[in-house]
Amino acid sequence: LSLYDATCQIAQETAEKIQERNRYQRNGESSAKLNVIIRSSLQNLREKIDQLKDLLLRAVSTHQITQLEGDRRQNLVDDLLTRQKQLQASYKNECTEPDVIRSSLMTGGVKRGVTNPWLVEESEETRGLGFDDLRQQQRRIIEEQDAGLDALSSIISRQKQMGQEIGNELDEQN
């Protein structure tokens, strides 16, 4: 599990580096050094995922963990593998994909293959924010939604109570 956490951290750092490289390319700055770092990180990520697969297979086959726990961990490894493939695709596609995705929204589909959610243009309110800032913004939005849901819940509870009182009054009048 600690290797899994370390691998997740590598994936996150790689995504940050790809985002930084794309930002440099949009601004016309050189991104050659970042490309080398990203390539190395992607290779490291692939090796860690392969290591996780081997350790998981060994743990399940020697009954060190239950089959249910093995399945749960396999799902985690599969998610990491999917993320690695997405990162690899976003690394290879450079900065051209967002325009294709944006134009595909109006035409009914992407013309040249699979879309990559890692390369979608970010909004003005999130542009330039790091992952921690994005998490804080997401938490703030969730807290606002929770407050709205609490208010809605209290209104619905009050309406339920009023409906029950009306029903009781009707029964009494009948």
TrEMBL record:
Q: Which residues form the T-SNARE coiled-coil homology domain?
A: 139-174
Q: Does the entry feature the keyword Transmembrane, yes or no?
A: no
Question: Which InterPro entries does UniProt cross-reference here?
Answer: T_SNARE_dom (IPR000727)
Keywords, alphabetical = Coiled coil
PROSITE patterns cross-referenced by the UniProt entry: T_SNARE
Query: From which residue to which does any coiled coil extend?
Result: 35-62
Q: Which domain of life is it from?
A: Eukaryota
Q: Does the keyword Coiled coil apply?
A: yes
Q: What is this protein called?
A: Syntaxin-8
- Source organism: Pelecanus crispus
Taxonomic lineage: Eukaryota, Metazoa, Chordata, Craniata, Vertebrata
